[in-house]
Amino acid sequence: MTAPLRDSAAAAVAEPRSGEVQSVMRAAALLRVVAQSSDGMGLSDLARETGLNTTTAYRLLKTLCNANLLCRNAAADKYLPGNLLLDLARSSFASSASARVMETLQTLARRTGETAAFGVRGRTGVTVAFSVPSDAPLRFTGGIGRTESFEGSAMGHCLLAFDPELRQEVINSGTHDPGRCSDGADSPHAHAELVGFNRFAVYDGPPAAGLRQVACPVFDMEGRPMAALEIQGPLSRLSDEAVEAAAIELKAAAESLRGIPDPIFLSQL
C-alpha cells in the first residue's frame, strides 16, 4: 500500500466533520482500501491502513459482508469486493459508456447529416441499441430495437467480415442471401474480403425504399468485433463520393469507442 492511500483512508476515520456519521465514513474507508487493493486484504492490514482498531474494523467488515458490499475469502483470510459493490461499479461504468456512445452518435449524425446507430450482435442478426436521427427533413427514422439479418445490413456485413466463426455459421445455415451489397460480391467470403480491406461496408436496401447504409465495426481492446456503427439515409444524398467521406467519419468514431464495455450489457440498461 502506498502512503497516500493510507493517509487518505486514515483521514476518513478521523473525528467526523459536522453532519457526518462516523461509522459510515469508517465503512467507506474500508471499502476504498479493499477496492484499490490488487488481491484483497486481511483484517490486520485493513485496520492498519484505515487507522481503526481491529475490533471496530472487524465489526464493520462483517456488516459490509452481510450487505454484499464485501466478501471474505476464508482460505486466504482476505476481504474482497462483494457482488453488490461490483454491480454498482459495472452500472456506473456502463452508464458512462452509454453516454459516450450517444455522444459519438450525435457527433456522427451532425457531421454526416444522416441517422446514426450503434448495433450489437444477437442470435439472428444485429439489433440497434442506440440511435440518433438525422436533422434532415428527408431521413431514415428506424429506431432502437430494430433487428436486421447479418447479410441484410451493413452492420451485419461488418461483423461477418471480422468474425470468421460467425461467417461460417451463416454459411452452414444455408440461409445465405447476398441482397444488394454495393460491392457486388456474391458470397460471405467475398463480402468479408472486401469489407475487411475497406474497413467499412455499404448496403443498399430495397429499391422502393431508396435507402443506403454505411457501417464500420467497433472492436474490443483485443481486436475482436463487438458491435458496429452505422449511418443510414437516402441514396440521393449517400452517393459513392459521400460514402467515402462518411466512411472516414465512421472509422474515427468506431476507433473512439474501441474497448467500451460489452455492448450487449449496455443495450440492457
Descriptive overview:
This protein has 269 residues and is an alpha+beta fold. It folds into two domains: 79 residues, Orthogonal Bundle (Arc Repressor Mutant, subunit A), CATH 1.10.10.10; 177 residues, Beta-Lactamase (2-Layer Sandwich), CATH 3.30.450. The protein is built from ten helices and eight strands. The strands form two sheets. It has a six-stranded antiparallel beta sheet. The chain has a two-stranded antiparallel ribbon with strand order 1-2. The longest helix is centred in the middle third of the chain and has 30 residues. 35% of the residues are buried. The N terminus and C terminus are likely disordered.
Task: Kindly list the characteristics that best describe this protein.
269 residues, alpha+beta, Arc Repressor Mutant, subunit A, 6-stranded antiparallel beta sheet, two-stranded antiparallel ribbon, 47% helix, disordered N terminus
Topology:
Blueprint: H1 3-12, H2 22-35, H3 43-50, H4 54-66, E1 70-73, E2 78-81, H5 83-112, E3 115-121, E4 125-132, E5 147-149, H6 154-162, H7 164-173, H8 188-198, E6 201-204, E7 211-219, E8 225-234, H9 240-256, H10 263-266
Antiparallel strand pairs: 1-2, 3-4, 3-8, 4-5, 6-7, 7-8
Helix pairs in contact: 1-2, 2-3, 2-4, 3-4, 5-9, 6-7, 6-8
